[in-house]
Amino acid sequence: MPRTERPENQCVYKIGIYGWRKRCLYLFVLLLLIILLVNFGLTIWILKVMWFSPDSSLLLQSTQNVTVNARNSEGEVTGRLKVGPKMVEVQSQQFQINSKDGKPLFTVDEKEVVVGTDKLRVTGPEGALFEHSVETPLVRADPFQDLR
């Protein structure tokens, strides 16, 4: 079998990353993996500490006030709820309070105020003052009290 010999001045080129470059690349990949694991661990820890649960409500606490804004797709504020130490303020087109069953108990908009319960009681010492006519099917006083 004939043997072919290589010329002695021919260089052999290695293909790939060798030496200190390879070590730096492995170190970089290891560092990225460690950062990824720390990030994942901190995310899990935050979720456990914040007690996120699909069955629980959102809890907001503040020493001054809490403001919640609702925005439309253009970014304009369409509704605002501001809870302060002495007042709750709502700015919206309509404000509604519902019962546990979802029935409207109290509804307010620019044109009317609707009380959706069977009975409306006015407990202030001055009673109720109406500037215009009032229509009701029944007016009654408390038991053993005069209608004033």
UniProtKB/TrEMBL annotation:
- Where is this protein chiefly located? membrane
Q: Which family does it belong to?
A: Belongs to the sarcoglycan beta/delta/gamma/zeta family.
Q: Protein name, please?
A: Gamma-sarcoglycan
Q: Got a GO cellular component term for this one?
A: sarcoglycan complex
Q: Which domain of life is it from?
A: Eukaryota
Q: Name one Pfam family in it.
A: Sarcoglycan_1
Instruction: Look up and give the membrane topology term.
Output: Single-pass type II membrane protein
Q: Please give the start and end residues of each transmembrane region.
A: 24-47
Function summary: Component of the sarcoglycan complex, a subcomplex of the dystrophin-glycoprotein complex which forms a link between the F-actin cytoskeleton and the extracellular matrix.
InterPro entries per the UniProt record, alphabetical: Sarcoglycan, Sarcoglycan_gamma/delta/zeta
Q: Which organism is it from?
A: Ursus americanus
Tell me the compartments it is located in.
Answer: Cell membrane, Sarcolemma; Cytoplasm, Cytoskeleton
Q: Which GO terms describe its biological process?
A: cardiac muscle tissue development; heart contraction
Keywords, alphabetical: Cell membrane, Cytoplasm, Cytoskeleton, Disulfide bond, Glycoprotein, Membrane, Signal-anchor, Transmembrane, Transmembrane helix
